[in-house]
Known about the structure:
The structure holds two protein chains of two kinds. Helices cover 81% and strands 0% of the residues of chain A. Chain A has helices at residues 4-26, 29-57, 65-87, 92-109, 122-157, 162-166, 170-202, 210-232, 236-260. The radius of gyration of chain A is 19 Å and the shape is globular. Chain A starts with a helix and ends in a 6-residue tail after the last helix. The mean pLDDT of chain A is 86. Chain B has three domains: 4-155, Beta Polymerase, domain 2 (2-Layer Sandwich); 165-307, NAD(P)-binding Rossmann-like Domain (Rossmann fold), CATH 3.40.50; 340-415, no CATH class. In chain B, the strands form two sheets. In chain B, strands 7-6-5-8-9-10 form a six-stranded parallel sheet. Chain B has a four-stranded antiparallel sheet with strand order 2-3-1-4. In chain B, strand 2 and strand 3 (52-59) form a beta hairpin. Chain B is elongated. In chain B, 37% of the residues are buried. The model of chain B has no long low-confidence stretch (mean pLDDT 88). Chains A and B meet through helix 5, helix 7 and helix 9 of A and helix 7 and helix 12 of B.
Amino acid sequence: MSGLLFNLATLAYAIGLASSAIYFVYRKKAFFDGALVAICVGFGIHTAFLVQRGIATGTCPLIDLRDSLAFFAWTVSLCFFISYIRYRVQALGLFLLPLVALLMLGTFFVRSSPIPEVLRSSWMYFHVLCLALAYGMFFVTFVAGLLYLFQEREIKSKKPRTFYYRLPSLDLLDDLFYKFLISGFGFMTLGLLAGMIWAEQKWTNWHTDAKVIAALITWCIYLALLYLRTSAGWRGRRAAVINVAGFLSVIFTLVSASFLGGLHKF
Amino acid sequence: MKLVLVGLNHRTAPVEVRERLAFPEDRLPDALSALRQEFGCEEALILSTCNRVEVIAHPEDGCLRTDRLIQFLYDFHHLQPPCLEPYLYSLSERETVRHVFRVASSLDSMVVGEPQILGQLKRAYTLASGAGSSGLLLNSLMHRAFHVAKRVRTETKISNSAVSVSYVAVELARKILGDLSNRTILIVGAGKMSELAAKHLIKSGISNVFVTNRTPAKAEEMAARFHGVALPFENLLSHFALADIAIVSTAAEGYVLRRPDMQRVVRERRHRPLFLIDISVPRNIDPAINDVEEVFLYDIDDMQSVIQANLEERRKEAESAEAIIAEEVEAYARRAATRNAGSLISALRGRLEEICLSELEKNRNGFSAEEYARAQKMLRTTAHRLAHPIILQLKNPDGNLNRYQHEVDFIKKVFDLEEEE
């Protein structure tokens, strides 16, 4: 995947990340505006790249692992825009962009072959699309939970430092956390259902596939988090452990097929 | 020197001196007219606040020594020299511009970033304009100063953080609860202190107010003032389940709220955050309550420590403000320098034309009338083309202003020019 568009998008994201970091330290508004423009440009080019790849392959551009990584990166930056437009949290970019950059760079190192022709169906594309969106949203949930902890610690310490001045209110961070948790969970449920229906038609023993089990564990963790948040009002430090566990589980699910093998190995 | 400044402020002079030098607003017109009529000032402005007294003036003869302004201060306030000597500062033009920009941007204030000074400066300028003592120079300086102050306010966060206890309470409430408009405040102890602390919070949009007090009548009274509801003091603990913010200030000797109580309350609240403000001395709330999840307890000392941190934050922002000031002073001086370039340019053009044409005049007899007219035209064009690169340099100076001034002096000297001011 060495398309010019892809490289340009990666570069734009990197510039966005760098100026977000400078803004965080020095708080010169020009750097934040610069970061926003760079991320917008990166996102635009990235979208153009996906379209171009879709036209080139004549189908939804999700036919190998690198495609999936690139698409996951795209959903994370999409989530950045959604959360920025809705909540105006300037610090969010600094924490979301490293993952985008990592995923983009990751595609240069991952070896993968296209998935077999027989597996290419709308079920599959819907399955991957929903899960990429869900994982992107869970990442925002993870970052929001983390920022909540930082801000909570600042306020409890009574000696405000960097984070106190640069992070939004606890209320806003909690809202961000909750909304993305709900949406992510919804998309994950849809994605898993689509995958199961489709697997039922193709395979018989998909229940024992490593990635399926990992994904179900992830789903259960987020179900628990959602339940405790809505019924018992768990947030902040109480929710943090489950939130971290959920996020690690997402990462594990993503890479599980690569070393555990199974039906998801391509 | 075109503009000079003489004055003293909270750093150079104690309040006893500042108050003796203050100009009451109704006497300012007299003071300004005295400056113009008796002390040789063409333009003058007096800024008199509780933290500073400053006179900015433009002298008639273009060369006013600041001791005339100092003399004016002694005369007007009937003081004997040299009693002000150790407190006064006198600034030259360039320093004056910088100083006025810093004052307008509240970098020279007692509490850096407090915006009152800009209003006071605007008022002083209005009074000077009204008294007819503000002209070209002061107008341009003041308008620029207001512009600089606006830049500093919007481009830095110098006035963003709270530096008084009541504003810190609002700032913290916003950091914890976000928008305050649908929040509930509980006031425990209907005294003066709690009323003062609650006032700003309620003004910031809190909609529901509950008051409770050992003497119910006082609670009723305060609740009426804040359009709130008085609650009985007996089941105090259950009231905390209703509130997002609670201000506690009772005359009780010990803790009215302990950690186990609070843990029960938090469960009842389903972990919604609670901001507790304990302004009573001795304290009414067990400090260990701050360790309970989603409860944020601040006493008076904690608020002070936030104020200290906020002041430090303002000082950091002041550094970027100083960079803006330096940039603006440079731009101002550049504009002032090139403003005079126009007359120099026309003098230079005239001089070069004169030199070229004088040669033609000497040999006038050798030309027919028609040839003479053509030669004259050619020589004029030559003169203009010679002047062109020099004019370009004068209009758009590169490099620093000192060098520019040297260049101007050099051109004046070699072409023997006298520019009109």
